[in-house]
Design brief:
Blueprint: H1 14-21, H2 25-33, E1 40-41, E2 47-48, H3 51-65, H4 70-99
Antiparallel strand pairs: 1-2
Length: 105
């Protein structure tokens, strides 16, 4: 079955996201103010969220529920991004080394 839109398509309003995720609209605006999420804007300048954005909000809510502040959440997200980048670098280096001719031949 085909989805009518992709995970990254901005189709949900603040009210819809707040209702679906059981959070206050003000909380969603705070996440944006703290640069934790960046919803798209409609032609009328209204926030529009994608399914990916909603997954990010769910993850952030879990971190907040564990006791992190929004500043702490921002730091966790930055560290996770850094780990992903380092893992990618490591994989590329391993691939480069395995493709290089060995010194003994």
């Amino acid at each position: 079955m085909n989805q009518p839109f992709a995970d990254h398509d901005p189709v949900f309003t603040v009210g819809q996201v707040a209702q679906l995720l059981q959070v206050q609209p003000a909380f969603l605006r705070r996440l944006e103010a703290h640069e934790l999420i960046s919803p798209e804007r409609s032609d009328g300048n209204q926030r529009r969220y994608s399914q990916r954005d909603m997954a990010d909000v769910r993850y952030i809510c879990g971190l907040v529920d564990e006791g992190l502040t929004l500043a702490g959440v921002r730091r966790v997200l930055a560290l996770e991004a850094e780990v992903r980048a380092l893992r990618k670098q490591l994989a590329a280096e391993k691939a480069r080394r395995s493709a290089a001719p060995s010194a003994g031949t």
